[in-house]
Amino acid sequence: MLLTLVDILSYLINLVVMMVIVQFVMSLLISFNVVNMHNDFVAALWKAVNAILDPILTPVRRIMPDTGPIDFSPMVLIVGLTIVQKILVHAALAQAYS
User: Which domain holds residue 60?
Assistant: First the structure.
């Protein structure tokens, strides 16, 4: 049962990591004018991704020092979630095989 819950949490963590990567790629495409924010689909997708990720990234941004124009909070979030995922998986496997 615990392995199933950890598996579900692992999928959710992977989903958040993928969304952070999508937000990063979209921000690059928007800043280099590859995609236009006047396109309704792009604007809606950008708003949706930011609405989902901002509550997760805001506490990380508060903890981190100000680095100027470069925002390292998505990278810190990905690393932190990956560490949490590894700890959960190894703890669940240790309990299952003990």
Answer: 2-96
Q: 0.85 cut: is pTM over it?
A: yes
| Of the candidates 67, 49, 69, the residue with the CA atom closest to the CA atom of residue 57 | 49
Amino acid letter for position 7: D
Q: What is the DSSP string of 19-43?
A: HHHHHHHHHHHHHTTSS-TTSHHHH
Q: Could you read off the pLDDT tens digit of each residue along the chain, which spans 98 residues?
A: 889 999 999 999 999 999 999 999 999 999 999 999 999 999 999 999 999 999 999 999 999 998 888 899 999 999 999 999 999 999 999 998 87
